[in-house]
Amino acid sequence: MDGAQILRLLLLLIVANGAPILGKRMLGAAFARPVDGGVRFFDGRPLLGASKTWRGVALAILAATLCAPLVGLPASLGARLGAVAMAGDLFSSFVKRRLGLAASSRAPGLDQIPEALAPLLAIASPAALGVAEIIIVTGLFFFGSQALSRLMFDLRVRERPF
Fold it and tell me: What is the C-alpha radius of gyration for the chain, rounded to an integer number of angstroms?
């Protein structure tokens, strides 16, 4: 188990998942087109919600792609991680809407695990990740995101402290 690799992957996950939040804070509503186009699912609720935007997806992929070489990983691996992290985030939003939870509501585990576990599984082979590394990084992301979220709220980057 390589501690440096664990930290690199954790940093890349934080960058990918944080880029949409920073983008929203810096750009406001500019370029914020909902991924679901405002479509409602069969249950009458939004498919994903207005807070899931193409801008956020693009920023996550771009940020992870640019950050990967800075931490010693291939840019292509960063792009894959960023894209699958956003797929995990969209999945979480879909499930939260089906459960009747409001956009940006808190759902511990559901808010963190898909956007960490899915991208780690997607890069497991090229990054030579074992089960232990995947579990450790996912766990660190889960607990670390709780602490970082509060810090981001205190710094006025996030609108809510969770």
Answer: 15
Residue with structure tokens 């690799």? 5
Residue 155 burial class via C-beta count within 10 angstroms: exposed 0-12, middle 13-18, buried 19 and up: exposed
pLDDT digits (tens, 9 = 90+) for 129-141: 999 999 999 999 9
The Cβ-side half-sphere exposure at 80, using a 13 Å CA radius, reads: 16
Which helix H or strand E contains 34, and what residues bound it? none
Q: How far are the Cα atoms of 9, 39, 99 from residue 44, in angstroms, in the given order?
A: 38, 9, 12
- Measure the CA–CA gap between 117 and 123, rounded to whole angstroms: 10
pLDDT value for 1: 65
Per DSSP, the three-state class of 40 is strand
Sign of torsion, CA 155 66 89 103? Answer: positive
Residue type, 23: G
Cβ-proximal residues to 6 (8 Å cutoff; 6+ apart), any chain: 133, 136, 137, 140
pTM of the model: 0.91
> Which amino acid, one-letter code, is at 54?
W
